[in-house]
Every structure is written in structure tokens, then in C-alpha cells.
Description:
The structure is a single chain. The chain has 4 helices and 9 strands; from the N terminus they run ααββαβββββββα. It is α+β, with helices and mostly antiparallel strands. The two termini are 24 Å apart.
Amino acid sequence: MPANLFGLNVIGQIALLNEGKPLEAFDQYFAPDGVMYANGKIFARDASEGRRKQEPYINSATSISGSIVDLIMSEEKEICAFRNRSTFVAPDRKKHQIDGVCWQRWFAGKVVEERYFDGDEMQKMLNIGILTSPEKIA
Length: 138
């Protein structure tokens, strides 16, 4: 079990994600000035933009089943990576499977940079070892 603030906060974030509470995890652990990337492109320049873009999709789900796997942390560099295999049910009752890798840099107990990869970009990141040595991506 991690003994420092970074490790404890990562574990807290993962617990909320696994409970199907992504907005709660975002609100609690994402820094106000944190930046988000999706497959190498800017997704959001700060937390308010990130929440505004994600909230409609998350709130429209009739259920979310969190499944975060393959968590790895570099406590000394405050970097973590994990695979998101969560599922959600859309308003049309169709079940959707998420399959992506999330890489995060933390500072002072908050995520200050998040890089999300899916599809071919995820495969590239897996091939270079994002889930064995997340500090390689830094």
C-alpha cells in the first residue's frame, strides 16, 4: 500500500472510477489548471473545459461499471498509468465497452497532466511499455 500522498490519491481516484463515479474522481483529483490530451492532441486546457466536455456523455449513461486494470505507479516521479476497461449503458440501452490507457502526472495531490490513448495510439503506447514503465512517456 502506498505511503505517500501521491500513492494514496491515485488509489482513491481508482476506487471512485471502479465504483462508476468518473465525475466525482475528476472533481476530487484533477487540478484546476490540469491539461488533458486525447491521442496526442489537446482535449482540454483546464479542468473546467475538461469537465464541460465529458459531463454530457457521463451524465447520459444509465449505468457505469468501472473496471480499471493494470495500474502502475512511479511514486518518486508522481506518474501513473492504467487501463480503463469500464462499460456504460447509453440511453438507448446499448452497452459500450471502453478500452483505453490513461497516463497521468500528479503534483501536490492532483492530476496536472493526463494523456489518454485508445485504438492504434493505445497500441503504440502499450508497445513502448506505458503499463510497465510509465516514466518512459514523461
